Amino acid sequence: METIVKVAAMTILLPLFIHCIPFGENRGRGRTLVEHSQALGVNYGQTGDNLPPPSAVAKLVQSTAISKLRIYGADPAILQAFANTGIGLLVGISNDQIASLNQLAVAQNWIKNNIVPFVPATDIIGISVGNEVLFSGDGVLISQLLPALQNLHTALAEVSLDRQIKVSTPHAMAILSTSAPPSAGRFSESFDMKPLLDFLQKIGAPFMINPYPYFAYKSDPTDRTLAYALFEPNQGSYDANTGLKYSNMFDAQLDAVYSAMKYLGYTDIDIVVAETGWPSVGDPSEAGVSLQNAIAYNGNLIKHVTSMAGTPMMPNRSVEIYIFGLFNEDLKPGPTSERNFGLFKADMTMAYDVGLLRSQSAGPSTAAPRTDGPVIAPPTGKVWCVAKPSADENSLKENLDYACGQSIDCKPIQQGGPCYLPNTMASHATYAMNAYYQSAGRNSLSCDFAQTGTLTSKDPSYGGCVYSTVNA
Question: Which residues belong to the active site?
Fold first, then answer.
């Protein structure tokens, strides 16, 4: 997202839907708010004129489940601010710096000036060289990429930091010529990937990719594509070559990359997601942009990667991700969505809540909402709490009984009330869950209901039945 190349993510097309595979079936009652997850990173861009100072950002990040940040330059103020915080930093080098790093002396000086003075106090875990260079179309720049990586690694080895700090480069999904089904994933013949993969394998560095289901949805804006992109219940897709089933586009994209590497003989290189995200605000013409969809994608993504479920081809495997991005950045060019990918606003309040703030105690798992975490600032705009379509009747009854037992006015869903019809457990439970959520200060934990509730910006009111809300 720091380059103008975004069509790359559209290369994953939605396969034929065959099987119904709902995402996020409960793996036990009760929500566990993500603590410090080693898989969870966020991109920290600074293309704004109203962003907080790095020292304030460091304190903010420490209060969340975020364990690492990808930054887009070796800014000494940021590197110093994150000293002794325990937050890992992936330090970026821009595309226009790559040519100079083809000289070993330049690479050595870069490491000496930008890395050595800050370690070990600052936990620098990697160097991200350029962004989507292979998809740039610049043949000279492409030829300079691997020598720059090699020189930086050599310079790190000379100061005994090569084991701690790995160098790699992020790629657009468009480096794949084939991506569906996932088992057919192949790199474009326009790129000779073997030298780069040999280098990454030799030094134990990851292959970095920028998958954006959001852009893939924009190229095929249908309801079934949206559910597949958002990790929401959908028919899923089936890979006839492997017999594997896919319930979300993110896993399909990663497995397509894995298949491409496997085809060339590389199965022992980790895949790191350098960028992925979903905008919360956009222009009317931008399909799929909404607060509800941003909450769904990033929230479900976080649950997915921290569950250690892996992907169908890489099961039970932690996938390291960096969500784009930490803040809404008001100086980014392009459509409105480009300035609204942030999890937080410039004033450090949440743009919306996906459960990132760290809880203060574990608490028991119960059918009732979790309330042991900190009070979280509500999302912007009107938001309602509704039951997930996958929630079973027993869970919904527990939710209904709990909410109505907490001084919530449940008369509207009693016989003769404006919300009595339809007389279904899902309808009545949703009304009560939303009433509880609104009365509890719109803390997202109060809509969890043991992972059977979810937030939406779509008003569930109908006819004379009005669902309460607070306009933030």
Answer: 132, 275
